[in-house]
Recover the amino acids of this structure.
């Protein structure tokens, strides 16, 4: 029975050894993806902040400005785009809503972000936009790829509608997680006015006719958990200005918004908890199962070889010889 058993164990050893790289390099790229119907929200705050009073056209110090970001998966749109794209696609309808200390709207900018569900690379399709304006994204936005690398990435900036490098600045520890720290600085750039202005009856077209322009700069910081590619913390040192025109005669400049924007503590806690659970699932496909199958294959191979060696070992000789007639002889035969 040893030989058939060793062959079965050998077959299992080959199976699990072959399954190890298949799990990592074939199954993982196909199974790890962003679900199309995902919904998440995030609250960020700037305490204190500088905000423009449109009644006096002067910048004022305020105790707090709140930014609510929502990402809502549009399943119907992703299904439609997948038919022509030939791959798994996620469509996020995003909204960045800025509110002053009184809770009133300061600005709101909607986005439609279309990307590959597995690699997070942008997918260019009808509807890709920022504040209603068509855009063509390059690089990532909101999320890094699974198994993030220690390198710079192209990151899309919604204000300027352009992509620029976001630089890897080293590995850090955040809330017990090993994270990669990234920074991006957008220099002062002339940007479009939001389609929805905080003053009733005032439109971006009317402001543009007055010759007043809007400028923006920011230093963007992310702490990214590399296995999932999910940011567990994000901050911006943000500044916006209105410059010149009839609203600001004499080439005057006024700060429209300035502040150090940070994720609210409870949202940081919730994000870290979610990422920890997702991290385990990704590690299962990339590390635990592949290495476990490889170790199991090696153990089964060793056991198979051991059984095969035992089956080929010759049986031990009898302790004595058999005499004629079946009697056992104790030594040399004596003459009668």
């Amino acid at each position: 029975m040893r030989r058939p058993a060793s062959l079965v164990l050998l077959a299992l050893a080959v199976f699990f050894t072959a399954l190890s790289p298949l799990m990592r390099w074939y199954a993982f790229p196909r199974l790890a993806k962003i679900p199309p119907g995902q919904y998440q929200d995030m609250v960020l705050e700037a305490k204190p902040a500088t905000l423009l009073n449109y009644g006096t056209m002067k910048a004022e110090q305020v105790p707090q400005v709140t930014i609510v970001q929502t990402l809502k998966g549009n399943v119907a749109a992703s299904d439609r785009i997948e038919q022509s794209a030939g791959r798994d696609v996620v469509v996020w309808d995003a909204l960045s809503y800025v509110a002053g200390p009184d809770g009133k709207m300061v600005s709101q900018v909607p986005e439609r972000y279309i990307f590959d569900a597995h690699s997070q690379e942008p997918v260019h399709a009808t509807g890709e936009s920022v504040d209603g304006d068509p855009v063509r994204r390059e690089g990532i936005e909101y999320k890094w790829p699974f198994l993030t690398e220690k390198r710079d990435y192209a990151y899309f900036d919604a204000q300027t509608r352009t992509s620029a490098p976001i630089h890897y600045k080293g590995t850090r520890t955040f809330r017990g997680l090993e994270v990669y720290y990234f920074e991006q600085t957008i220099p002062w750039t002339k940007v479009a006015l939001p389609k929805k202005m905080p003053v009733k009856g005032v439109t971006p077209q009317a402001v543009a006719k007055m010759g007043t322009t809007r400028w923006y700069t920011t230093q963007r910081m992310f702490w990214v958990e590399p296995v999932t590619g999910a940011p567990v913390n994000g901050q911006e040192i943000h500044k916006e200005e209105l410059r010149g025109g009839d609203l600001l005669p004499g080439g005057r400049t006024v700060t429209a918004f300035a502040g150090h924007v940070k994720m609210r503590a409870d949202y940081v806690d919730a994000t870290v908890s979610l990422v920890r659970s997702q991290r385990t699932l990704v590690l299962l496909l990339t590390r635990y199962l592949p290495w476990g199958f490889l170790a199991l294959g090696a153990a089964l191979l060793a056991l198979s070889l051991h059984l095969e060696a035992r089956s080929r070992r010759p049986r031990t000789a009898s302790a004595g010889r058999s005499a004629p007639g079946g009697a056992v002889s104790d030594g040399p035969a004596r003459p009668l």
User: Anything to note?
Assistant: The first strand starts at residue 39 and ends at 53. Residues 317-336 have pLDDT under 50 and may be disordered. The two ends are 50 Å apart (CA to CA).
